[in-house]
Amino acid sequence: MSGDLSLDINIKEPRWDQSTFMGRAQHFFFVTDPRNILKSSETLEDARITVEKYRLGVVKPGLTEDELWRAKYIYDSAFHPDTGEKMVVVGRMSAQVPMNMTITGCMLTFYRTTPAVVFWQWVNQSFNAVVNYSNRSGDAALTTNQLAAAYISATTGAVVTALGLKSLAKRLPAVMSRFVPFFAVAAANCINIPFMRQRELKYGIPVTDEEGNRLGESVTAAKSGIIQVVVSRIGMAVPAMAIPPVIMNALEKKAFMKRFPVLNAPVQVGLVGLCLVFATPLCCALFPQKSSMAVSSLETDLQERILHSSPHTTTVFFNKGL
C-alpha cells in the first residue's frame, strides 16, 4: 500500500445511507449531475484507474477521501456497474436532464400534427432504447439481432400508442391534447423497458449474498427490477410533462407570447429542464439501486441451489438497473 488514505472506505457502496430516501437522493444528485457529461476521456480514465486501484488496495500518493469519492462518482456516471464498460454519452444517467429536456420540450411543443408526433416519439424512444440498454442490469449483452428486434418492437409500440392517444384526444378539451405526450411516454415506458431488457426476463439477472458473492441468476429478480425502473421513469416524466403544459396553456394567451411565438419552444424546454433537474434524481431514488429479495421469493430451483451452496443466506441482492 502507498499513501496515507485508509483502505477501510467502502466505495463499492454509495457514500450516503441507501436505506433512506434522502440518502439515495443525495447519491443520485451526484450520479445524474449533467456536468459529468462534460468530463474528458482523460478525466474518466483517471477516475477509473483511481477507483480500480483502490479496490485492489493501492492508493495514489496524496489522495484524500473527498478526492476518492469524487473519482467514484465520476466513474459511476460513465461506467456500467456490472460490466465495467464505458457507456455511450447519451446513455449515461448524467445525460438524462439535457437530453430529456430537449426531447420532451419539443414533444410538448410540436404535438398538433401527426408527422410531428411520430417524429418526436421516435426520437424519444430511440433515446430511451439507448438509455435502457446502457443501464441494463447484469453482465450479459444482447446480440445484434436481439437488440434490433427489441428496438423495433419498442419504438413501434410507442409510436402506435402516441397516435392512438392523439386520436382519442380530439374528442376532449383542447388543453387535454397537451397531455398526450405524457400518457404516450408513460405507456411507452411500459413497452420499451421490458423489450430492451428482454434477455433479463428470459435468462435472469445475477443475484448475490450480502458480501457480493454471486449465487445464480433470477428471472423473478429481473421482473422486480424492471417494474421498479418503469415506475421511476414514469415518475420522472410526471413533473416535466404535466406541469409545463398547464403553464404554457396560460402563457400562450399572453400578448408577449402571441407577439413572439418563436419563444414557445425555448420556454417550454426551459420549464421541462427545471422540472427534470429535481425529478430525475428524486425518482431514481424511489427504490434502492441494490435491491433485495427473500430467497423464498425466488424460483424453486434457484432456492434449492442457494440452500445447498449458502444455507445461511435468507436474502439476496441484485442491481435493478436504472
Automatic annotation (TrEMBL):
GO terms for biological process: serine import into mitochondrion. Keywords: Amino-acid transport, Membrane, Mitochondrion, Transmembrane, Transmembrane helix, Transport. The keyword Mitochondrion applies. It is a multi-pass membrane protein. The keyword Oxidoreductase does not apply. It is found in: Mitochondrion membrane. GO terms for cellular component: mitochondrial inner membrane. Pfam families: SFXNs. The chain crosses the membrane at residues 175-195, 226-247, 267-287. InterPro entries: Mtc (IPR004686). GO terms for molecular function: monoatomic ion transmembrane transporter activity. It catalyses: L-serine(in) = L-serine(out). It comes from the Eukaryota. Mitochondrial serine transporter that mediates transport of serine into mitochondria, an important step of the one-carbon metabolism pathway. Mitochondrial serine is converted to glycine and formate, which then exits to the cytosol where it is used to generate the charged folates that serve as one-carbon donors. Belongs to the sideroflexin family. This is Sidoreflexin. It comes from Hucho hucho.
